Amino acid sequence: MAKQPPRTPTRRKPARPAGGLTYAQAGVNIEEGDRFVDLIRSAVRRTHGPRVIDRPGGFAGLFRLDFNERLFKRNYADPVLVACTDGVGTKIKIATELQKFDTIGLDLVAMNVNDMIVEGAEPLFFLDYLAAHTIVPESLAQVVQGIAEGCREAGCALIGGETAEMPSVYPPGEMDLAGFAVGVVELSRAIDNTRVEPGDVVLGLASSGVHSNGYGLVRAVVAEARLDLRRVYPELDRKMTLGEVLLTPTRIYVKPIVSLLRAYRVKQIVTGMAHITGSGLAANLERALPPDCDAVLDESAWDVPPVFPFLQRHGAIADEEMRRVFNMGIGYCVIVRPAFAASIARRLKRSGEQVRRLGQVVKGSGRVALTRA
């Protein structure tokens, strides 16, 4: 196994006597693992800010949560650590088939930090775990460079990780990814869905496409309909191949959401949030509702990206199944007080988000109703 940051060269074990079994003969190449670490060192260091403590030769990453120096403008009165872990699912299979690994690392970061900010937290640092049949330094370096890019976009440091070469576990050419994120939130500012009440407005932020959920069904459609991942389908995009469309990275919502929460330090006008992942819009938004409220959403309030009707048509997928599996164009939801809905929408748009007013909260039983005007 080749350690990721802190990225010190792997210590080589003493050579075995002549004729003895070697690690390389067992399928693990230590030298390639070391070369991989060298390839990604600079990308990882570019995610480090002054809170990261450099410990050459260390076995774990060190990160200052807070301390009394002018270097940091914020001190926490009652800090709560927030942690989460996630992967990219079988989207990695498409990346592997196309040998295109430059975006999948962004997905890994996004799936974690987008979950974290739902709690009102600020991401602090990230760790990754890559496992593969064989370490191919150039391919895995693309993955980690994407992770580093995602961390920079999310404002967190990539301070640790592990790369495991396990030919007895993974078939040739196969790999898997997992990510781990840690953040912090001031307890008094943590999002609490019991504050959601009738009259609150639900705003939706557009997704960048399929994101990283539902790829078991996506791959089944591609196989059953004999679609070509390397072909350009004009109804999807006139320049990108189907594979490139499906590998479009998950949008990272950290900076606009964290900026929004910081802008309202006294008034808690954001009452709930939801990251729209597996199970779709309705099921994920229900997690942000208290048991005595419903959300009524208008499906005509947003445009569905072309990739979804394309998959539905080629897979003959029922409408309800599409809604249950995919985000259908909305990647994140923010529930806000009605008097602030317009100003918050404007602020999020200035941050580069496509914002739609999806509906509002009413008295109910913790459910989401999808209607069409």
Characterise this structure:
The model is unreliable at 4-15 (pLDDT under 50). Strand 2 (52-53) and strand 3 (62-63) form a beta hairpin. With 373 residues, this protein is of the alpha+beta class. The chain is 31% helix and 23% strand. The chain folds into two domains: 2-10 and 21-189, PurM-like, N-terminal domain (60s Ribosomal Protein L30, Chain: A, 2-Layer Sandwich); 193-371, PurM-like C-terminal domain (Phosphoribosyl-aminoimidazole Synthetase, Chain A, domain 2), CATH 3.90.650. The strands form three sheets. Strands 9-11-8-12-10-13 form a six-stranded mixed β-sheet, with helices on both faces. A five-stranded mixed β-sheet has the order 1-6-5-7-4, with helices on one face.
The CATH topology of the largest domain is given as Phosphoribosyl-aminoimidazole Synthetase, Chain A, domain 2
Low-confidence stretches: 4-15
Number of domains as seen in the coordinates: 2
CATH class of the largest domain: Alpha Beta
Look at the structure and name the CATH superfamily of the largest domain. PurM-like C-terminal domain
Taken in chain order, the helices and strands follow as EHEEEHHEHEEEHHHEHEHHEHEE
The overall pLDDT average reads: 88
Q: Classify the secondary structure makeup into a structural class.
A: alpha+beta
Summary tags:
373 residues; alpha+beta; 60s Ribosomal Protein L30, Chain: A; Phosphoribosyl-aminoimidazole Synthetase, Chain A, domain 2; six-stranded mixed sheet; five-stranded mixed sheet; 11 helices; 13 strands; 31% helix; 23% strand; globular
